Amino acid sequence: MPESNHAAVTLFRPTGPEELDLVRKSGFKKWPPRLPGQPIFYPVTNEQYATEIARDWNVKVSGSGFVTRFEVRKDFMDRYKIEQVGASHHSEWWVLPKT
Questions:
Q1: Which of 36, 49, 68, 98 has the smallest number of CB atoms closer than 10 Å to its CB?
Q2: Which are the contacts of 55, defined by CB distance < 8 A and separation ≥ 6?
Q3: 60/10 Cα distance (integer angstroms)
């Protein structure tokens, strides 16, 4: 959780059971490395969109889906662009790997 004297934004991340288990094993401190074909980490901006992804993609692939919610300092997230990827509520941050 960000320090109290810093503004924070709430991010949502739909996830399947395997990814959630890796997050749990980290003590809920980090996300696992991205897959080779998915270099962008893309938390979404709202719970509705995260729920749709968890329900429609994660459940279909792995039998269950979860929505995680976490806070990140706003000044950090301001580095990344929010992308509109579908309907008006289909928006996500594209967090690119360091180069």
A1: 98
A2: 65
A3: 26
